[in-house]
Write a structure and sequence with these properties.
406 residues, six-stranded mixed β-barrel, alpha+beta, 10 strands
Amino acid sequence: MKRFLTTLRLAFRALRRNAMRSLLTMLGIVIGVAAVIAMVSIGTGARTQVETQIASLGQNLILVMSGNVRPGGVFTGFGGAGTLTVADADAIRTEIEGIAVVSPEVRGSAQLVAGNLNWSTTVMGESHDYLDLRQWSVDDGACFTELDVRATARVAVLGQTVANTLFPSASVVGQSIRIQGVPFSVAGVLAAKGTNTMGQDQDDVVFVPYTTAMRRLFGQTNLRSMNVSASSPGVIADVSEQIGELLRQRHRIQSGHDDDFMVRTQQEIAQFATSTSRIMTALLGAIAGVSLLVGGIGIMNIMLVSVTERTREIGIRMAIGAKRRDILRQFLFESVLLTSAGGLAGIAAGIAASRTLAAELNWATLTPPYAVASAFLFSGVVGVFFGYYPARKAARLDPIEALRYE
């Protein structure tokens, strides 16, 4: 232990003798580690934000979408085929166990008029328990009821943006609006949700009973999609599979033929949505890691120069009893100290950079502990890897030749 501490003290002393050179040598490691921390923080923050948005879609969500057909070889895409019906939704609700909520969905753009004000927005037809599925509370008033759905009642629940636009200074609940020329009574106003990861205003929406939307607004007989909530996370996969089997039976889809619907679980949606940011995080982290390697090459270069400059010193140490492993350890310690100090400074700089980006550009950033630990560990590994060759060269010097060196 005493020999170890002595070697460490000698390494500190050697680095302090050339403080400016040591700081400049560390700079490459500082920049590399800071870049890695900043890039990973940005990527992780973006992915976390997307996952939060997906989670806000609902609890244990299964999304059933129409449209996956190819009439005449042409792929219709999501919602284009209109292959789902209200009867399909009723069958899923009654025939499959493990389901908490089924909300048939239709949607479209519509012009809203209130007094002398008007606004174009998205109108969504849903069931009475859709807001519970989305965990979206009503700020004022109440949601429409199951009786309203059955009666195709002309009642609406407004998002905050729509409510503030059409009724900037008046009480909203109980007011009358016209949607596509059809009069509706405002039953409630939703709590604000803000924008999603795509920059879309989630509060710029109106909810009405899906039966009313189909018959009175859009003249549809089919559904765009269905939002299904499983009773628990453990049954999501089983319920999703059962929904697929039931719809294939109801739509008489033969084995080997394409389904005319799509079933996606919340986990699948999250994986798809975050796959791009995950790839970008890895790519940016790898690019930033290149600067760490460049910094390591700089460490090796300076350490080789240091060995050459201190050849006579090495010869003297060997002459008075220092062993080859002591020389190897000293130069290796110097390299690891440089990279470790640079790693710590880089971590601080990277966290500061990510917070600055978050404050100035409104970017979501999150610095995971594993990134900090990995960056510091990798900087130490760089020190060992790139410092070993110069240290080994110093340890293998011949003491007689080293003493003669001028």
